[in-house]
Amino acid sequence: MASDKKKTVLRSANWFGTRDKNGFMYRSWMKNQGIPEHHFEGKPVIGICNTWSELTPCNAHFRKIAEHVKKGVIEAGGVPVEFPVFSNGESNLRPTAMFTRNLAAMDTEEAIRGNPIDAVVLLVGCDKTTPALLMGAASCNLPTIVVTGGPMLNGKHQGKDVGSGTLVWQAHEEYKAGNISLHEFLSAEASMSRSAGTCNTMGTASTMACMAESLGTSLPHNAAIPAVDSRRYVLAHLSGMRIVDMVHEDLTLSKVLTREAFLNAIRTNAAIGGSTNAVIHLKAIAGRMGVDLDLDDWKEGRGVPTLVNLQPSGQYLMEDFYYAGGLPAVLKRLGECGVLNKDCLTVNGKSIGENVADAPCYNDDVIRPLDNPLVANGGICVLRGNLAPRGAVLKPSAATPALMNHRGRAVVFEDFEHYKSRVVDPDLDIDETCVMVLKNCGPKGYPGMAEVGNMGLPAKILKKGIKDMVRISDARMSGTAFGTVVLHTAPEAMEFGPLAAVQDGDMIHLDAHNGVLHLEVPDEEIAARLEKLKANRVIASTSGYEAMYRNHVMQADEGCDFDFLVGCRGAEVPPHSH
Ligand code: FES
Ligand code: MG
């Protein structure tokens, strides 16, 4: 319903509202697009920040979504203006889309602040696009609403439902173990990705869509409606209508993105079996908003049951999740067990508790009831110890229970290239009790912190039918991946974190139940090894964006933002350009 209140002074009036030379210039050029005079007379100007790109296949349908947002904006009396920002697509971009997340965030922030807009709709989908745009928008703090592109339909392969990403890891291991042919392996490609949209598993894209909804930054159901479902376009239309009212209500992002909202998101991540990447992204978004959030806040999620039975932790896919009731059904159940702060304000002007009070669940196998969870104690484990003084993470629902407390001999890979050449060596001294350690894949080491933490097992171990081993690295892992994988070890090896000191044959003890990651080497010996590494370090020279990245990226526990980008700088109107 349209608000009665009208905002009397619009930010955009600083461009379009004057009858002088400057007003003439701003309006005149805009009029070349056929915008009539009355659109410059006190109507809220709504920026539609679009990550559309044919190189980001998950977001390739966004021009159409933008059209529906525009219809809603116009219906509510606003003026829509669509603009592009850097689109960091997960599947094509090298070395990793994470390398350019902060670049996209900078692009978003400056595009919002520098332009004549009163509020912004963020069109996001593929993994890094959601945090990047929320980070940029948080630093500006205008009224902001998230519209996600929606997940792909379920993959269908050989008569079975198959999940994005998860099928790649599974099929590749099967192929390496000699269980399927090359033809069978390759034939799965088209079956997996058969409609527009983001990965249909509870990977990072779906996780971040759920994070945006649980933070209150989107309308209810935004996370799960499939990309090609007509209700996705209705949601885009309604979001377009709503953002105009948010201008009149002055409902800025900081009123939604409170510390309590972030804690709700952390608990929601546990309930959905969400990606470990959310640890980094939520920290980065909170940092932009000036909200205190640290790694230990993830302990809030431990003890929360995982209710959503989706791959990679469970069985189903996002399409099933939407039909079962979507995120509102999950949030309602979290409310029932007392772990949702129901008072948090959301972008529709209601509290999150009000939004989900009557949310139905249509399938208790997809969204489990509280007394029959997929995992009783979900969430993300925060580990600390002499191997990770500033923390590391592990996702118990994707891990093998028997390996959660494990002591084993380290087999060390100095970097990902070393891993690739060494893991195929049939003479490599390794068995399933060993701990695979991968170094120099952290934020600075890779650079960009690649999703290689779930490094594949050696073929000779896979052939024994073994599917999991303890793996430790400073890398990230795709949200679609699984295994007993310790990630985000901080400080990273490149920054001379203790991970850099591990050598073949060292014993490592992982005790995930007690949050401990211990290298059984005396402190003095670790220090001596690190000193030796420092003395021998050759710093490769870099230029361009990579140089800025290496000089300014922070460690995983700090969200991997650039140090100089932390904080909210607001959206004060900059001086005229002419
Ligand atoms: Fe884009 Fe998974 S690769 S969402
Ligand atoms: Mg991913």
Secondary-structure blueprint:
Blueprint: H1 13-16, H2 21-31, E1 45-50, H3 62-75, E2 79-84, H4 101-114, E3 119-124, H5 129-140, E4 144-148, E5 155-157, E6 160-162, H6 166-176, H7 182-192, H8 204-214, H9 230-249, H10 253-256, H11 259-272, H12 277-289, H13 318-324, H14 326-336, H15 352-356, E7 381-385, E8 388-394, E9 405-413, H16 416-423, E10 435-438, H17 459-462, E11 470-473, E12 485-486, E13 507-511, E14 516-519, H18 523-536, H19 544-552
Helix pairs in contact: 3-9, 4-5, 5-12, 6-7, 8-11, 8-12, 11-12
Bound molecules: FE2/S2 (inorganic) cluster and magnesium ion.
Description:
- The protein is an alpha/beta fold.
- The chain is built from 19 helices and 14 strands.
- It has helices spanning 13-16, 21-31, 62-75, 101-114, 129-140, 166-176, 182-192, 204-214, 230-249, 253-256, 259-272, 277-289, 318-324, 326-336, 352-356, 416-423, 459-462, 523-536, 544-552; strands at 45-50, 79-84, 119-124, 144-148, 155-157, 160-162, 381-385, 388-394, 405-413, 435-438, 470-473, 485-486, 507-511, 516-519.
- The protein has a 6-stranded mixed beta sheet. A 4-stranded parallel beta sheet has the order 2-1-3-4, sandwiched between helices. A two-stranded antiparallel sheet has the order 5-6.
- Strand 10 (435-438), helix 17 (459-462) and strand 11 form a beta-alpha-beta unit.
- Helix 5 (129-140) runs parallel beside helix 12.
- The longest helix is centred in the middle third of the chain and has 20 residues, at 230-249.
- The protein is globular and about 80 Å long.
- The mean pLDDT is 95.
- The protein binds FE2/S2 (inorganic) cluster and magnesium ion.
- Magnesium ion (MG) is lined by residues 90, 127, 203-204, 478-479.
- Residues 90, 127, 203-204, 478-479 line the site of magnesium ion (MG).
- Keywords: Iron, Iron-sulfur, Lyase, Metal-binding.
- Residues 43-355 form the Dihydroxy-acid/6-phosphogluconate dehydratase N-terminal domain.
- It holds the Pfam family ILVD_EDD_N.
- Belongs to the IlvD/Edd family.
- InterPro entries: Dihydro-acid_dehy_C, DiOHA_6PGluconate_deHydtase_CS, ILV_EDD_C, ILV_EDD_N, IlvD/EDD_N, Sugar_Degrad_Dehydratases.
